[in-house]
Specification:
Radius of gyration: 18 Å
Order of helices and strands: HEHEHHEHEHEHEHHEHEHHEHHEH
Structural class: alpha/beta
Distance between the termini: 41 Å
Largest sheet: 6 strands, mixed
Shape: globular
Length: about 325
């Protein structure tokens, strides 16, 4: 299991190439939640999400032979952009596999950074395509979540939260495969054990809930949610281990709640969040995030803001 030292090393490797994203208070969300609420705005990170943190930390440690071979990854969109951005910085050839239904905006952004984008099938089919291409071309896999170096890079979000708000009581994090919550939980719990870490999943893609219920990393046969960035078909083994050790609670939100959170973030906080980026806020607004004191400072991570204009109006409509 990674440590805070690994996360601090990740920050040194990526320093100068990534933004230190802002942590801002919200009077509106604080009033609605009945406690001080702060937003960690990862939608302001390079590529519009937290993903370059893990991708760049991971890829910066590849040796010369691995860099020459090139890398491959799979993503609904944000990790694709993170890997593509890191590859452009490091001069590495990158192939990203995305499901056929992936956001056109996210696919075009990955191509814009120079990656070869291959769209194929649903997410399960895309994983099979990934394995096929990796074997055929001898590419190095940069896993979107189940990798220690990816997790350590994502954990830099947690370091920044603690530096900006040392007395934080609760940190709320959306969960897909578990990369972000794993890194954040290690940073928060190892440096401030009294703080709480709460994970949020969509009802239509609750793989970590299922994993915790059965006591081992689970796999989903199908997923149905507007939060494509949280729709991982399985929980990572490393991620599940960390969640079991450090995450205090897991809660669920439905698509209607996510839409409502997107609207409030945009209208009242002037923050554009994609559905995956708004899921943590949805859980807070629905009263699903407990508090030891009832008034403790709470940080909600807005994990990304990559949403195309052609879909934004539909997403913001009332269900």
């Amino acid at each position: 299991m990674i440590s805070v030292a690994d996360i601090e090393a990740a920050r040194e490797r990526t320093r100068g190439h990534l933004h230190r994203t802002p942590l801002v208070g919200s009077a509106t969300l604080s009033r609605m939640a009945g406690r001080p609420v702060f937003l960690k705005l990862e939608n302001f990170q390079k590529t519009g999400s937290f993903k370059p943190r893990g991708a760049l930390n991971n890829m910066s440690q590849l040796d010369a032979g691995q860099r020459a071979r090139g890398v491959i990854t799979i993503s609904a969109g944000n990790h694709a952009q993170g890997v593509s951005y890191a590859a452009s910085l490091l001069g590495i050839r990158a192939v990203v596999v995305m499901p056929a239904s992936a956001s056109r905006l996210k696919a075009e952004a990955a191509r814009g950074y120079g990656a070869e984008v291959i769209q194929h099938g649903d997410m399960a089919g895309a994983f099979r395509k990934l394995e096929e291409l990796q074997q055929e071309r001898g590419l190095v896999l940069v896993h979107p979540f189940d990798d220690d170096q990816t997790i350590a890079g994502q954990g830099t979000v947690g370091l920044e939260i603690l530096e900006d708000l040392p007395d934080v009581e609760t940190v709320v994090v959306g969960i897909g495969g578990g990369g972000l919550i794993s890194g954040v939980a290690v940073a928060i719990k190892q440096m401030r054990p009294v703080a709480r870490v709460v994970g949020v999943e969509p009802t239509g893609a609750a793989v970590m809930h299922l994993s915790r219920a059965q006591g081992s990393p689970a796999r989903l046969e199908k997923m149905s949610t507007i939060a494509d960035g949280l729709a991982a078909p399985f929980a990572g083994a490393r991620n599940f281990e960390i969640v079991q050790k450090y995450v205090d609670d897991l809660v669920l939100v439905d698509d209607a709640g996510i839409r409502a959170a997107m609207r409030i973030l945009l209208e009242r906080c002037k923050v554009l969040a994609e559905p995956a980026g708004a899921a943590a806020t949805a859980a807070l607004l629905e009263g699903k995030i407990g508090s030891r004191t009832g008034t403790g400072r709470t940080v909600v991570i807005v994990s990304g803001g990559n949403v195309g204009m052609e879909t934004l109006s539909d997403l913001l409509k009332s269900p």
